[in-house]
User: Which sequence fits this backbone?
């Protein structure tokens, strides 16, 4: 076995965790509006337990929904009414050999006001609206309220034990109620519950004592932010001093996260640019001052990183968050020395965006996540021939799914390499995780029965001659024509084409002068950063205001991208502007009523692309007579994110297989 430390058991009090992998609590939005466990939730966690995860910490469970609910469908454990679902969930986790841990939480000032049954949120202090200083948005808790919430934690812990949970974790990270009392940033009280560090720790201490009373000799874990990364917040130096106090209060293990929402949300949920294992120095520092097991979390994607962290003493347990959304079988594959088969998490935060939209959990790279009850796509009951045109993530997903269902599948790609738009997406700086995903897809194709044809010259006649039963068009997008005077193929190109052909694209030398990038969307901004990274000075002309740059990008990634880009001295940003013409190396830009002239060496057009669906339309127009089923997916259907394209591919193939099997069943009944 290549990972002996990763698969070594660990005892915490009366519980033996079979290996060092942990699923940290992540909101799924799969619960019911009343806070009860759903069948979909049980299936979701069962899959991660069956995948070999050592311990599963179930998503945050609110100890009092009326005052602390933080999102719709959040789990609760307030009374015996909630017990049945939790018992079923615990039994499912334990049946697969994993340890079931309950996380207890109260949102405090960070609770969602629209969901509460009280007039405003509660927390350590009164908080007033910044927009309207007369409006109270959080009410400081009275002594009796604090005592009541302590009892809520204890009551929920008692119910958790009745449900069968083997361990309990307290959510003292990311700006929820326990954190609010602990942090000088949010606790301004001058009574026994504040005033100094000892006072700020009184509420967490009391909660620890009450929960310990409730759970007996079972493990009690405390999740915390080792550094809040915001002004006035807790620092790693503070936490090196505080963590031993938490252990003295009765904590058996510490789960080390970082950040606080919303001020440092990028340290709670990392953007794609965050390097692998960047939190390890923080967990190591906490481990050096505490004599209890330490759980580390965040940007641990490969078993090698996990094994090295254990070897170096950075942690005792490895929490795999979004990693297990991408591949619930991560642990089993690592144990089998089959790490290349692990579906990689790219930190794209497609899962997070779904949560913000109050949708159930999804993963861009694994369309089965959150849909475990659906099961795998069934096998075809009769032979079928399938053609997939285009090898972006949607096309490859469709081809793999069709082949796995038993179809004789051919994947046609006009380029001489696989990946389609994924090549472009992976080209800018800090997006190498997408290249890992592309290489994973290529390995999956090579191990499958899919017939791959590169440099394919597809036409309506070519497709018809192959006599397919289904054609899936994942043809992506195409450049929009432009009518700018003075631009031609010698002094300009489309941003997509540039990123698709790096590093061989024939650009002028960096000292030839600035490159003008037209378009301030996500692609335009990424193109600017790519050029800056290669030594160019760049002029970014955007028709929109600066606040709308890259506005369609995922929020966490967007903030990170713009922070880097706008800090670069090699960038000149000209907003609310249009290009009039280019003449003899001079670009004339119109910004409001002002005309600006800029010397440039080249121009890159990033002003949007159009869906490429012409081949689909041609084949579909004759498909009725030829009995070819046509499906249009990915950007060719709707311009969107990788996750949207992959999900659509998966669903389209499932629909095709189900329809074809119904026809076969119908003919069998008729016969």
Assistant:
């Amino acid at each position: 076995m290549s990972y002996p430390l990763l698969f070594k058991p660990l005892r915490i009090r009366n519980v033996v965790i079979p290996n060092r992998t942990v699923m940290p609590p992540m909101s799924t939005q799969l619960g019911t509006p009343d806070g009860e466990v759903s069948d979909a939730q049980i299936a979701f966690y069962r899959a991660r337990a069956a995948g070999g995860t050592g311990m599963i910490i179930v998503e945050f469970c609110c100890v009092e929904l009326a005052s602390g609910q933080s999102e719709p469908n959040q789990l609760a454990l307030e009374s015996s009414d909630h017990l049945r679902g939790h018992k079923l969930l615990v039994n499912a986790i334990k049946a697969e050999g994993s340890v079931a841990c309950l996380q207890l939480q109260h949102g405090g000032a960070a609770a969602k006001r629209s969901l509460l049954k009280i007039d405003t949120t509660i927390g350590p202090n009164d908080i007033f609206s910044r927009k309207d200083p007369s409006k109270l948005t959080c009410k400081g808790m009275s002594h009796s309220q604090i005592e009541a919430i302590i009892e809520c934690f204890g009551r929920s812990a008692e119910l958790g034990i009745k449900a069968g949970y083997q361990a309990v974790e307290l959510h003292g990270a990311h700006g929820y109620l326990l954190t609010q009392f602990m942090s000088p940033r949010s606790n301004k009280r001058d009574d026994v519950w504040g005033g100094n560090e000892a006072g700020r720790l009184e509420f967490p201490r009391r909660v620890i004592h009450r929960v310990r009373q409730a759970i007996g000799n079972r493990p009690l874990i405390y999740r915390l932010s080792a550094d809040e990364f915001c002004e006035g917040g807790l620092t790693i130096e503070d936490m090196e001093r505080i963590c031993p106090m938490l252990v003295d209060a009765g904590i058996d293990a510490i789960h080390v996260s970082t950040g606080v929402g919303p001020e440092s949300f990028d340290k709670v949920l990392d953007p794609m640019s965050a390097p692998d294992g960047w939190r390890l120095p923080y967990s190591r520092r906490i481990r050096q001052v505490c004599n209890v097991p330490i759980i580390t979390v965040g940007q641990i994607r490969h078993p090698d990183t996990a094994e090295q962290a254990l070897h170096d003493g950075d942690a005792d347990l490895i929490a795999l968050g979004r990693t297990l959304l991408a591949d619930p079988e991560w642990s089993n594959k690592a144990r089998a020395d089959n790490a290349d088969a692990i579906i990689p998490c790219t930190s794209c935060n497609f899962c997070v965006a779904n949560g913000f939209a109050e949708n159930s959990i999804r993963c861009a790279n694994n369309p089965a996540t959150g849909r475990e009850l659906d099961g795998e796509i069934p096998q075809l009951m009769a032979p079928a021939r399938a053609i997939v045109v285009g090898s972006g993530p949607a096309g490859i997903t469709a081809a793999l799914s069709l082949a796995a269902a038993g179809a004789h599948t051919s994947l046609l790609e006009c380029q001489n390499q696989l990946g389609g738009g994924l090549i472009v997406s992976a080209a800018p700086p800090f997006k190498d995780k997408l290249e890992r995903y592309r290489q994973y897809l290529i390995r999956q194709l090579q191990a499958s029965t899919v017939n791959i044809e590169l440099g394919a010259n597809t036409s309506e006649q070519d497709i018809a001659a192959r006599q397919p039963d289904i054609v899936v068009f994942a043809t992506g997008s195409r450049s929009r024509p432009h009518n700018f005077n003075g631009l031609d193929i010698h002094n300009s190109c489309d941003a997509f084409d540039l990123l698709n052909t790096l590093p061989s694209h024939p650009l002028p030398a960096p000292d030839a002068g600035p490159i003008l990038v037209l378009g301030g969307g996500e692609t335009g901004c990424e193109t600017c950063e790519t050029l800056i990274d290669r030594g160019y000075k760049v002029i970014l002309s955007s028709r929109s205001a600066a606040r709308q740059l890259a506005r369609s990008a995922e929020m966490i990634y967007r903030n990170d991208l713009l922070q880097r880009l706008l800090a670069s001295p090699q960038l000149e940003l000209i907003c609310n502007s249009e290009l009039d013409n280019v003449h003899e190396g001079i670009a004339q830009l119109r910004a409001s009523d002002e005309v600006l002239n800029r010397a440039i060496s080249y121009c890159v057009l990033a002003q949007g692309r159009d869906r490429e669906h012409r081949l689909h339309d041609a084949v579909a127009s004759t498909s009725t007579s030829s009995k070819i089923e046509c499906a249009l997916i990915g950007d060719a259907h709707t311009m969107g994110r990788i996750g949207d394209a992959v999900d659509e591919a998966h669903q389209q193939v499932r629909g095709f297989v189900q329809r074809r099997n119904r026809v076969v069943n119908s003919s069998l009944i008729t016969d």
In short: The longest strand covers residues 55-62. Residues 642-670 form the longest helix (29 residues). The CA atoms of residues 126 and 140 lie 4 Å apart. The two ends are 54 Å apart (CA to CA).
